């Protein structure tokens, strides 16, 4: 299965996640602070990291920033803080998912499996979509605007490419959440709104191509 690093300064949280992860067949390593997590990611190979935000030595955001300098492995941010600012900060750093404490361990396992399935999936053919000065290479997972490379978080790419593949189609919020996040969503759709906001920011002058359908969802046209 997967080799997972759990980074949280609370021993009981690490034990809880380890219990469920090992039951699912995953191997688990632990870190009690951000500095330890960064060091372990440099010296070991993991498939996914579960990272708390509020920790001694080095907080989760700073640890994620350091890990992202040399690795694109999936990261799930785990925290008791649920403010929109924290979500945006995490997603801009390239966090793949955000789980607020208290959380369901079973739901966390579903999120892990969904993320890893998406990471393992790859396009079999080169697929490039061009709209005026906007170019998206869906195979290479790159986006350029007027020749300039646009950096997006992994989840922004997932959302953007799904909308591109389904352009000119009205996409309900439920459809986007199900197809892009890939797990049963538990009522909090602010995550989708946050990613749409980040995606529009990344697209700059082409943000107008994402149309809000009031009471329905979104459409890329």
The biggest beta sheet is recorded as:
5 strands, parallel
Structural class based on helices, strands and sheet pairing: alpha/beta
Order of helices and strands: EHEHEHEHEHEEEEHEHHEE
Under CATH at level 1, the class of the largest domain stands as: Alpha Beta
Order of the strands making up the biggest sheet: 2-1-3-4-5
Name the beta content range: 15-25%
Number of strands: 12
Helical segment tally?
Answer: 8
How would you characterize this protein structure?
This protein has 221 residues and is of the alpha/beta class. The chain has two domains: 3-120, Response regulator (Rossmann fold, 3-Layer(aba) Sandwich), CATH 3.40.50.2300; 128-220, Winged helix-like DNA-binding domain superfamily/Winged helix DNA-binding domain (Arc Repressor Mutant, subunit A, Orthogonal Bundle), CATH 1.10.10.10. 42% of the residues lie in helices and 22% in strands. The protein has helices at residues 11-23, 34-43, 60-68, 84-92, 105-120, 154-165, 173-181, 190-203; strands at 3-7, 27-31, 48-52, 75-79, 97-100, 128-131, 134-137, 142-145, 148-150, 171-172, 210-213, 217-220. The strands form three sheets. Strands 2-1-3-4-5 form a five-stranded parallel β-sheet, with helices on both faces. The radius of gyration is 18 Å and the shape is globular. It starts with a strand and ends with a strand.
Summary, kept brief:
This protein has helices at residues 11-23, 34-43, 60-68, 84-92, 105-120, 154-165, 173-181, 190-203, and strands at residues 3-7, 27-31, 48-52, 75-79, 97-100, 128-131, 134-137, 142-145, 148-150, 171-172, 210-213, 217-220. The chain is of the alpha/beta class.
